[in-house]
Amino acid sequence: MAFFNDFPEYVTVAEKKRRAAAAAAKLQQKNANVWPVVITGRSIATTWWGKAWCSNLESYADYSNRIARGRSYVRHGSVLDLQIAGGKVEALVQGSSSKPYKVEITVGPLSDSVWQQIVKECTGKISSLQELAGGKFPAGLSEVFTTRGKGLFPAPADIRFSCSCPDYAVMCKHVAAVLYGIGARFDHDSALFFQLRNVKMDELISASLAAQSQEMLGKGGRRSRRVADDADLGKTFGIELDMGTDEAASPVRGRGKREESGLNEADGGNRSGEPAAADEAVKPRRGRPPKNKTVAEPEKEADAAPKRSRRRL
After folding, report:
1. Contact of 127 with 208, CB cutoff 8 Å
2. By mean pLDDT, which of 92-96, 97-101, 161-165, 230-234 is the weakest?
3. Among the listed residues 237, 215, 219, the one whose alpha carbon sits nearest the alpha carbon of residue 229
4. Cα separation of 232 and 71, whole Å?
């Protein structure tokens, strides 16, 4: 009977979460930098970087059978603290013992040749840092990032880990919980992924924007060469092509033509400088009798004045 009494008591999921939250709060009182992993929804990770991290781990046969042991641990809030700095992860995981276990995970750096190839593939395909951080980039880049051996995500051979628990397994459930917790952490800050791989996130953006600038400059150069070709074409055939200029808007050209013709507004349009005659000021149209308002109208007014005076008498 004593053998059966050695089985651990059953603890509900709600109680496990409550105990984990209490343990995390106790640690935060001692150290304000303690950052527990809290899973609120059904999925451990929701962003592209977090999902891609978890999918990469599960895609390897030597990890897929063992990493599942940590899902329930990370869901219950057992990862009390998780810190990422450089290529190293340090975490505290609450287990059966009252004192949390210490887990350390080291991820090998990305080779320079692989990184330069990735930078080359991203050239001209990413518009901003927000687009890269949010995972909003072309589908072709997703394949580049996740390709085994040539992408950004590590292989099992690149990962080293240790745990202070007495479990003899190669990968204990505490380590597995931390590996899943890393993916959940990327939901809050995807830049941590690049810190873990020891590569600079800005290099992808700089290379992409530089390529886009060169493309814009190339288009501008092609346009200027086209204008030059049009000018040469006009000279070849002896014609004047419309290059988009407005001669009427140039006051200098207007004055030059008027001076060459010998016309001047001040001398009334006479080349000799003498004022033009009054009859020549207004020329009648062909087929109509001349009409001189300046002479006819005063005569009518003069004739009308005596008539009005006779009526009054």
Report:
1. yes
2. 230-234
3. 237
4. 73
The model's pLDDT over 158-201, given as tens digits with 9 standing for 90+, comes to 999 999 999 888 899 999 999 999 999 999 999 999 999 999 88
Rg (CA), the chain: 44
Cβ neighbour number for residue 20 with a 10 Å cutoff: 22
Q: Poorest-confidence range of 4-13, 151-160, 178-187?
A: 4-13
Q: Domain ranges in the chain? A: 11-210
CA distance linking residue 47 with residue 54, whole number of Å:
11
Helix or strand run (H / E) with residue 162: strand 159-163
Q: Is the pLDDT of residue 217 over 90?
A: no
Q: What is the mean pLDDT of residues 273-288?
A: 51
Could you tell me if 180 and 74 are in contact, meaning their C-beta atoms sit under 8 angstroms apart? yes
Whether residue 273 contacts residue 267, with contact meaning beta carbons closer than 8 Å, is answered with yes
- CB atoms under 10 Å from CB of 198, counted, come to 14
